[in-house]
Specification:
By secondary structure, the protein is an alpha/beta fold. The protein folds into two domains: about 170 residues, AF0625-like (Aminopeptidase), CATH 3.40.630.50; about 80 residues, 3-Layer(aba) Sandwich (Rossmann fold), CATH 3.40.50. It is about 30% helix and about 30% strand. The strands form four sheets. The chain has an eight-stranded mixed β-sheet with strand order 2-3-4-1-5-11-6-10. Helix 1 packs across helix 4 and helix 2 packs across helix 4. The radius of gyration is 17 Å and the shape is globular.
Length: about 260
């Protein structure tokens, strides 16, 4: 079973939820999650919480994949469709999660969602990976598929419909990929270089630690990046011009049986 998770506090998420109910065959069940009815579509479910997405705890769901349909917010307000997994590379849990703890993630799912967004996007919206950030921390593979970056975009029903279609594709598809499963180190929050490699189908990314969090990296966090990415990453890609501590990172990866490459 796979689960789509939405929030009534999130404008984009609520719009996607209503589209999925109306147009994609989800039927109300007698089950509840966070005091809201669970909707079912074949063997999969959709749930709604009155908490913000980053504070929802989905670990009670008996699901193999957790797909969060969510807003993305940024000061720039640039129209963007994003994909990322969750976890916290610091002690700061103001945005959910647990200190220095990463979620389970599926690199195949992340790559599929990104490329599907790119294929369906016929607007001026940018399509991008984001690095691992915020909560919740989950014990099942999790992916956020997001509409950004301001209220104007969150209320674009045509754009929310793109995310709804990606969510349904994730539920329907037996995801296969010939891309190399990897983790990433360095670069900006929007992982421009890694996004380009993923869109081309060369690599499927699990966890990504951005340049601004490299200072917090430890062997334990790198171990989590490896062990909580499925399939096991064959490479750690390191941005050669936008990442510090390269020697340490390479050494830790080597100890974990993962090759590294500068890109």
């Amino acid at each position: 079973m796979k689960a789509v998770i939405c929030s009534s506090k999130d404008v984009a998420s609520r719009n996607i939820y209503e589209l999925l109910k109306r147009d994609f065959g989800f039927v109300q069940s007698t089950d509840f999650f966070d005091d809201n009815f669970v909707y079912k579509r074949e063997k999969n479910i959709m749930v709604l919480s009155d908490k913000d997405t980053i504070f929802i705890n989905p670990n009670s769901l008996d699901a193999d994949l957790l797909v969060f349909a969510s807003r993305h917010k940024s000061k720039s307000g640039i129209p963007t469709l994003t994909v990322h997994t969750t976890g916290v590379f610091s002690s700061d849990v103001r945005f959910g999660g647990l200190p220095f703890t990463l979620s389970q993630t599926n690199a195949r799912v992340n790559g599929f969602a990104l490329r599907k967004l790119n294929d369906l996007n016929n607007s001026d919206f940018k399509v991008s990976l984001e690095v691992t950030h915020h909560g919740p921390v989950t014990n099942k593979p999790v992916v956020f598929v997001e509409v950004g970056s301001s209220l104007k975009q969150w209320n674009r029903i045509d754009i929310c419909n793109i995310v709804a279609k990606v969510c349904v594709s994730l539920l329907n598809s037996e995801i296969k990929s010939s891309a190399v499963p990897v983790i990433g180190f360095g670069g900006s929050h929007y992982a421009a270089k890694f996004t380009d490699l993923a869109v081309k189908g060369e690599f499927d990314f699990g966890h990504i630690c951005p340049k601004y969090m490299i200072k917090n990296l430890s062997f334990d966090l790198v171990k989590q990046m490896v062990e909580k990415t499925f399939p096991k990453p064959k490479l750690g890609l390191i941005e050669k011009n936008n990442c510090s501590r390269k020697v340490e990172i390479k050494s830790w990866l080597n100890d974990l049986g993962v090759d590294s490459r500068l890109v």
